[in-house]
Amino acid sequence: MLLTTVRSSLRARSFIRLSTWRSLSTATPEAHLQHLEKHPGVTCLSLNRPHTKNAISVQLLQELHQCLDDVQFDNRARVLILRSTTPGSFCAGADLAERRTMTPMQVNKFLLDLRSALSKLENLPMPTIAAIDGPALGGGLELALACDLRVAGHSVSKIGLPETRLGIIPGAGGTQRVTRLLGLSKAKDLIFTARMLSATEALQCGLVDYVSAEGSTAYDRALQLAGTIAENAPLALRAAKQAISRAPELALESGLDFERASYEPLLKSLDRLEALEAFKEKRRPVFRGE
């Protein structure tokens, strides 16, 4: 009797897991990759939860991890744009409605997975751009901070880390990445006050790098920026990102050694030879990432 009960319980659990997997696999993707044919070398990682302004759910986080794993080794992706599929939105942070249904263990796992995803994003080999076309709050701003560059839409009015107003602190890298980007004083001011910044204010303090023209979107400006970057040699872009990213943690002499180590392999690349030939022939080089 006991054995029968155990077997029934195991079958029920297997059915629940299978049903959950099927529902996730057949649902509309909440994060997906797209190579842009009209913009060679540019790939988009799109967030797609319009009804929640792309609040980060368990499913979105799982799919974000998969997208990052896929794009990491995709040589077609010379530049990655992180964007929303919904006009007027970016990412409103964690899905608090879903969070209220989670156990403490599930919350801890979610936070660990979120930290891991943002580290993956930050450490992608190609340059990354966040196109902020709507509110970037809490975890949403932390997501943008894990990108190399940030572009805000002209009319965006809510960019910030409101966690202290909610009884917590930024928990997905906000205290660390904002401090590295803005310095101690500005980071403390932003987090202590929990205030929202407009796109213009975010540009003035250095939180974003570009603001789109009036009547244009952050995605439009990000595409323009990505196109400019993608014209350059892919191997050189990756080596430059690698060297720059290590700079803050290295003493100057060690940093110069690391820069030289990143520079040396490029001298033997086919792209370097192509650049020299193109310069000699007074034409634009055609880089292949080789």
From TrEMBL:
Gene Ontology, cellular component aspect: mitochondrion
Pfam family, one: ECH_1
GO molecular function, one term: hydro-lyase activity
Keyword Chloroplast: no
GO BP term, example: fatty acid beta-oxidation
Alphabetized Gene3D superfamilies for the sequence: 2-enoyl-CoA Hydratase, Chain A, domain 1 (3.90.226.10), Lyase 2-enoyl-coa Hydratase, Chain A, domain 2 (1.10.12.10)
Record field: transmembrane: none
Alphabetic keyword roster: Lyase
Source taxon at top rank: Eukaryota
Family matches, as PROSITE patterns: ENOYL_COA_HYDRATASE
Family membership: Belongs to the enoyl-CoA hydratase/isomerase family.
Protein name per UniProt: Enoyl-CoA hydratase
Originating organism: Jaapia argillacea MUCL 33604
Lineage: Eukaryota, Fungi, Dikarya, Basidiomycota, Agaricomycotina
